[in-house]
Specification:
mainly beta, ten-stranded antiparallel beta sheet, six-stranded mixed beta sheet, extended
């Protein structure tokens, strides 16, 4: 193993270089509010092949060469002085190779910050996005690579520049950056490959099962280390595409690749597959033993060889995308129920074991004892089968596609045939199948389509959370499609932009912010480039949240009295507008909680002080919160609580419902009492008995409060089966003025499931106030907590 020169110094200055540009903009002309910089990379090797970055085995260093027209880096600037890390990324717009140096031009927005960090990712196409910090940047190492005979694919040469701190944007002074290779290099020499005289190497794949060789990862640029490898679309295989490389000598040739760091030791295996222009595959599995090992280290090159002597090529499955078998093609063959007959056409090799139907004519399938092996086996296809259509002259009971010539095997799809055209609904992934009939079915043609269906793996509901601008782009969604896929339609109102990456098989879409107050649905339509098969995807967007709790504020009567409210918003809001800043102030938020403070003593009770108004950015929607204040000396709403710990203190286990028990809250001078039941195993609750005509009432008596009761909140579980209180209800909680079972019911609570649940008795609609009362129940309730607001 040879060690590469792991770092490559570059300099950045506010100077202009001419060269190939990605657009028609002149890179020398700075737009207002921008800063143009130039990144200068290491020397190139004269007379080197046109390979962009490549590995020079003599100097053991990375070299730059070519005209620079395909070279781009992603330049990153992090503003550390911002309240939250603010990071802007800019892809270089041009690259020029002059006097042995590569000069990249990049343009950033002007930033007056005095605490900046700079870094870069090469190549630009392998930068995905940042996670709002250089400590977690998303990068991609492609699984499909295009090496040449002497070096790796530069598009797979994943490198990052170590972060550099600056006190201002570099307008006159240069920056020195150092690139470090994230990827490891492999040089696999393949020898003694037994190709025929007219065969050439089309591709080589290297697979290490259980290892992550490619895909997306998170990189900490400050350290140059991967912090989460293969978090998205991980691949254990690298495919080296040699289809454009010309003739390769099969006796011995190198297959260069890059991969993520990993190692293979004794008993580990890797698989090498060479695919030829004759659609043959040459496969060898190698298992390491003893001291053998392969260690792929960032910045290092691992060299090894694989001897393919004696490995025979195997013909690949059919590459046909649409294959058809007709009775006209096979009617001259010796068809019979007893003998399978192979027939090959442009679609592949079919196996027909069927009777020659005469009235009507066709391939006749049956399932009786003598014909139980009757079937048509579809060709083995290289791509999954996505559609099977059958033209029928006589219909039996059913047609089924089986995994084997056995009605007891896995059935991929079934239909009830009719005379004429019939199409199976295919949902499973399979490459061949056995078509069998229940009853006599006469078939005139079978048509199979492969590689056309697009299968979306998982599109979850999309919420507009965090959107502060006009749109939001969400994480790419994986899909399966054997052929290239294009976006052919999207709704344009909810989904505003869509793109497909056919290399990584991912769909990226952008939605507009939802200000409607209700959930809504958009759509995306993808179409296979193979045969126009389509799939329409529903994109569900949740309703936006913009609300406060509570909806109004009542302050205590003394100056300095405070109250809190919570603002929930999916979108950024302006600072609160206070209509009476001389009477109260608003501070916060802390975890979305604001505090309102009275600035003077109250006057008359419930006097209107003013309002607090929040305006949502983007659509100017407002929430207005009225603020009032009680009379001086009144502290406003108070809360008393009987907790499970205090209920334990009231325990009188084993005495049933006949003994009254009390708990005195000495801090607030409040006395709670109950004749509820407590078991020996569950002393931290009070169980109320069902109200019936044959038994007394079990109850909890509330303390005597100094003010009217506003609301009572219970935490409960049921202790009995369904009872009165509505369909499916487990029972109801009641508030009474006495503990007699025939007393008038003032309020009833909601029903409760067997799970722990909150039940609320709200007194807001009552015209008469209550300062105490009794809690009873229409079913067995276990009460674990009581909170009274008064």
């Amino acid at each position: 193993m040879k060690t590469l020169s792991k770092m490559m110094s570059i300099a950045v200055a506010a100077m202009a270089f001419t060269g190939c540009s990605k657009d028609s903009t002149n890179p020398e002309i700075e737009k207002p509010g921008t800063v143009t910089m130039t990144v200068i990379a290491s020397d190139k090797i004269e007379n080197a092949p046109l390979t962009r970055t490549h590995y020079d085995e003599i100097t053991q260093k990375i070299q730059w060469d070519g005209d620079g027209s395909t070279e781009f880096i992603q330049f990153l600037e992090q503003d550390n002085a911002a309240a939250t890390p603010a990071l802007q990324a800019a892809e270089s717009t041009s690259c020029t190779l002059t006097a042995g140096k590569a000069s990249f031009t990049v343009t950033l927005k002007e930033n007056p910050s005095t605490n900046l960090t700079y870094a870069a990712v090469y190549p630009a196409g392998n930068y995905v996005t940042d996670n709002q910090s250089l400590s977690k940047v998303k990068v991609n190492l492609p699984a499909t690579q295009t090496p040449i005979a002497t070096s790796f694919d530069p598009n797979a040469d994943l490198m990052v520049a170590r972060a550099v701190q600056m006190t201002s944007q570099p307008k006159t002074e240069p920056i020195s950056l150092s690139f470090g290779r994230v990827a490891a290099l492999g040089k696999m020499t393949i020898t003694n490959l037994g190709l025929a005289a007219d065969e050439t190497v089309k591709s080589v794949s290297f697979t290490a099962a259980g290892k992550v060789l490619a895909g997306r990862s998170y990189v900490d640029i400050a350290t140059g280390r991967i912090i989460e490898i293969g978090y998205f679309s991980p691949s254990d295989r690298i495919i080296m595409d040699f289809s454009a490389a010309g003739t390769i000598a099969p006796a011995s040739f190198p297959a260069w690749f890059t991969c993520y760091p990993c190692s293979l030791a004794a008993n580990d295996s890797f698989t090498l597959v060479v695919t030829s222009s004759a659609n043959k595959t040459y496969t060898k599995q190698v298992t390491l033993s003893g001291a053998q090992k392969l260690v792929f280290t960032p910045g290092d090159i691992t060299t090894f060889s694989v001897n393919m002597a004696g490995i025979a090529g195997e013909t690949q499955a059919s590459d046909a995308k649409i294959a058809t078998l007709t009775y006209e093609e096979v009617k001259s063959l010796n068809l019979a129920y007893a003998t399978p007959v192979e027939y090959t056409n442009t679609g592949g090799t079919w196996v027909v074991q069927a009777y020659k139907g005469t009235n009507p004519v066709g391939m006749q399938l049956n399932n009786n004892t003598n014909a139980k092996n009757s079937h048509i086996q579809l060709p083995v296809f290289s791509k999954p089968i996505t559609s099977v259509s059958v033209e029928i002259a006589k219909a039996g009971t059913s047609l089924t596609l089986y995994a084997a010539n056995d009605t007891g095997s896995n059935a991929y799809a079934t239909l009830s045939p009719v005379v004429g055209a019939n199409t199976f609904t295919v949902t499973e992934n399979f490459n061949t199948a056995y078509l069998k009939s229940s009853g006599v079915t006469v078939i005139t043609s079978v048509t199979v389509t492969t590689g056309a269906t697009i299968r979306i793996a998982d599109i979850k509901d999309v919420a507009a959370t965090g959107v502060t601008g006009a749109s939001a782009t969400y994480e790419p969604v994986s899909f399966t499609g054997e052929d290239d896929t294009a976006v052919t339609a999207f709704d344009g109102t909810i989904v505003t932009a869509v793109s497909v990456d056919n290399t990584t098989k991912t769909l990226t879409y952008t939605v507009s912010p939802n200000y409607t107050g209700t959930a809504r649905e958009g759509s995306i339509t993808l179409t296979s480039a193979d045969n126009d098969a389509t799939v329409t995807i529903k994109v569900s967007q949740k309703a936006d949240q913009f609300e406060v709790s509570p909806a109004s504020i009542t302050l205590g009567g003394d100056s300095g009295a405070t109250a809190e409210f919570t603002l929930t918003s999916d979108f950024e809001v302006d600072a609160p507008d206070v209509s009476a800043p001389d009477k109260f102030s608003v501070s916060g938020p802390v975890d979305n909680v604001y505090t309102v403070t009275a600035l003077a003593d109250g006057g008359a009770a419930e006097a209107e002080l003013g309002t607090i108004t929040f305006t949502r950015k983007g659509d100017d929607k407002e929430i207005v919160i009225p603020v009032s204040q009680v009379a001086k000396g009144d502290v406003g709403i108070s809360i008393a609580e009987l907790t499970s710990d205090n209920m334990t203190a009231m325990s009188n286990a084993g005495s049933g419902y006949n003994t009254e028990k009390t708990y005195v809250d000495a801090l607030n001078n409040l006395t709670w009492s109950t004749n509820g039941y407590q078991s020996t195993s569950q002393k931290n609750m009070i169980q109320l008995r069902v109200r019936t005509n044959n038994s007394g009432v079990s109850w909890i008596k509330l303390p005597e409060f100094t003010k009217e009761i506003k609301k009572i909140t219970f935490v409960v579980t049921n202790a009995s089966a369904n009872s009165a209180g509505g369909a499916g209800a487990k029972g109801l909680l009641y508030f009474q003025t006495t503990n007699a079972k025939d007393a008038a019911i003032v309020l009833s609570g909601g029903d409760a499931s067997n799970a722990i649940k909150e039940v609320v008795l709200d007194f807001a609609t009552l015209t008469s106030g209550y300062t105490t009362g009794y809690i009873t129940a229409s079913a067995g309730f276990r009460i674990w907590n009581i909170k009274v607001e008064y």
